[in-house]
Amino acid sequence: MQQININRNYKDRLFRLAFQEKGDLLDLYNAVSGRQYTNPEDIIITTLADAIYLGMKNDISFLVSDVLNLYEHQSSFNPNMPVRGLNYFADTYREYIEINGLDIYGEKLIRLPMPQYIVFYNGMKEEPDRVELRLSDAFLCQNPEENGCLECRATMININYGHNEELMDRCKRLKDYAVFVNRIRENERRGMALNEAVELAVNSCINEGILADILKKNRAEVCNLILYEYDEQKQLAIAREGAKKAGREEGIEEGREEGRAQGREEGIEEGIAQGIAQGREAEKVMVIRNMAAKALDPRSIADMLDTEESYVKNVLNLLAEKIGKTDLEIAGILLNRNKTGKNP
Q1: Could you read off the pLDDT of 11-56 as tens digits, one per residue?
Q2: Which of 69, 250, 294, 339 holds its CA 20 to 30 A away from the CA of 239?
Q3: Is residue 304 classed as helix, strand or coil in its secondary structure?
Q4: SS3 74
Q5: Could you give phi then psi for residue 337, rounded to 5 degrees?
Q6: Could you tell me if 201 and 184 are in contact, meaning their C-beta atoms sit under 8 angstroms apart?
Q7: In terms of Cα–Cα distance, which of 183, 177, 154, 238 is closest to 20?
Q8: Cα gap 93→100, rounded to integer Å
Q9: What is the Cα–Cα distance from 291 to 298, expressed in whole angstroms?
Q10: CA–CA separation, 163 vs 159, rounded Å?
Q11: 109 and 153 in contact (C-beta within 8 Å)?
Q12: Cα–Cα separations (whole angstroms), residue 188 to 3, 78, 121, 229, 290
């Protein structure tokens, strides 16, 4: 089997790559909305080039007639998608109003395209075929007798293989995408290394005409982004669990020490809180370390983690200065310096 040379300077994720052509995007829109548009030129792409939410660009945004659509792809369940959608739609409408010269201060009602927000989910956790996520679920006040003045609804559609079969039958591209991702997972379940699992899935799908145009033309890029995303998901999960466990253990020990002087229960609670904070900080340190090892520059890492570039640089400097220190120890140094008011 020929080894794939991984190019780390990837730009697009697979879902966006799969629906980059207007014709494919129109097929997806028709399948989701139940409409029957036939002219791809009816689509006007409105994706914001500089819109970054939670470290990732919004995936696909477009106008069809009087409907403004936001399509997002998620490989893990995220209940905060409506909050992201609110930010996105606010920016898009602001741009739409400016481009079209609409007067929001006048006496005449302006006309805006209707928003539709779809989240395509293909994570490993089992989820229903469809779930409605609402911005109002995040409101601190949950009194049923009081309604907030804002709402944003996101419809999450499960696109894992075997889910929403009618939808898949209406959009071959979406079904092909589900099949391709499922083959990678099936290969992994059979004990293959990730690189081998991806390579075999690419070859078999090309041979069977599944996403063949994309996989042939963008083979290296597709393999790169799949390997990177799967690797990051696993590392995040491992880091999260490991850091929490280590943080709690260290926090409990610190709490016991402090508890001898200030009261056992109070000391343990404070120690646990400190340990959890240190564990979370260690998780970020580990992710930054791993991203840097993949030859990503500090600015790219900061964009993907939705944090300050100066913070990333400080972490990398500490990692270089404190060779041999664990991520948890580096996290402790960061937190201690923050407490004393010193920059890491």
Answers
A1: 337 888 888 899 999 999 999 999 999 999 988 887 654 433 223 3
A2: 339
A3: helix
A4: strand
A5: -70, -35
A6: yes
A7: 177
A8: 10
A9: 9
A10: 6
A11: no
A12: 17, 24, 20, 15, 22
